[in-house]
Every structure is written in structure tokens, then in C-alpha cells.
Design brief:
With about 240 residues, the chain is an alpha+beta fold. It is about 15% helix and about 40% strand. Strand 4 (about 90-95) and strand 5 form a beta hairpin.
Amino acid sequence: MLKVYQESFILRTCNCDFQGQWRPSAILETMQETAGAHSHLLGCGRDALLKDHIVWVLTRSEVHMHRYPKVMDQVTVETFPMPNRRWFFPRYYLFKDQDGQLLGYAGTLWALLDMNTRKMLPPGDVASLIPNNSDLTPPMGLPSTVEAIEGEMHTVFRMPQYTDLDVNQHVNNTRYADWACDALGVEMMRSYCLDTLVINYAAEVLPHQEMELQIIKAANRCRVAGFHEGKMHFELSVALSPRK
């Protein structure tokens, strides 16, 4: 059983932002794709689960970056799951440069979703397909909840678009990072990068659900929470540092 999955690739312009640096949403995309590739090899990938009308969904993500690679840099991603916690499956990631130096790390919590009822499912037989990685040391604890930020709040509305949606027929988890960077604005993103990104996914966002985004900025931090008809569907927070 493959305990750890590793993949190396060269950053292309499509993976980077307007300053040639690895885009936060592209980091989440890499996490999503490597998790999918590893799950496929373990026998619990998308195609295998869909036979029973089940898919993987994210409930939490937390990313920490020490240094951002740029266009044409090589990045190696290592990912591995840890034993499930009740209905949740932790998975961790290490990002390294071509010399093996650590660029950053991340942790996620995954769950199983019934495509027919749109409700979470218990681990069931899937748990038996996860390798026993209790001998491995994760780079962090379980992904955290989003902390409150004090400051003035402003609100914008955002209707999910074609490019936001994925094969599960809802807004893809990676798109929330783009929504956060859009909320920060071009000038802020020109001067700063995300040290930390924490996303809590409370409920999926469907194509017809216009989201009320409540945004609070304070010093080097920002919090974005998305509501539809008074119900919170997600919240995220970022911590910023000057670009190098």
C-alpha cells in the first residue's frame, strides 16, 4: 500500500499570478489533484467511489508558505493521509523546491458526500483503504477553525460563474482562494503574498446561489465569510507578508 505519494512538476504561467508567483488557488489545485491521484492508487479515487454515488469533499484546508516559487521553478509535492477522525479523513502536504528545501506545507480534512442526498456519509469501507501512517509525523496539527478579526466590514455579492464550478456541480474548493485574493485587491496583492490561508467549508455553494461576501481587513489579515439567505457556506482567513 502506497503510504506517501510524490509528484514533481514545473510551474507554468497558468499556475502563477500576474507577478509570476505560484497562485494561491493553484496551490489548492495541486493539493486537490495529488490527493486524487493518491486516492486512485489506493482504490478509493473518484471513479471507484462514483460507482456508489459517493465523492470526496473538503471540509477544511490550511496552507502555510515560507517561500513562493516562480514561473519555471520545479516544485515537488509529497502528500499522505493519516488515520480518519470519526467521519473525517486528514491529509497533509509538503511543498519542496528542486533542492529539496521546504517551500511550505498544508493540511486538509476530507469527508465523503452522497451525490444523491448531498449529505455526508460515515467512513465505511473507505477507511480500510487508507494506509496506516501512524508512524509518520504530520507537518502541523489538524486544520484550524477561522479566527475572528476585528475591523470594519464591507459586503459584496458574487454569483457563481461557469469557471467556479467543478465536476461535483458546485463551486470548487480552490476558487475560494481566488475570491479572497479578489477581495484583497490588485494593489494589495502586488505588494503582499499569503503566508497563511485557512478555509472552512460549511456547506457547498451551488450554481444558483448568489453569495453575500462579508469582508474584514485589519493590518496584515483578512477574513471573508460567504452567506446565502442568511446561512454561512464558508469562511476563510489569510495572513499577509510583503513580497520578496
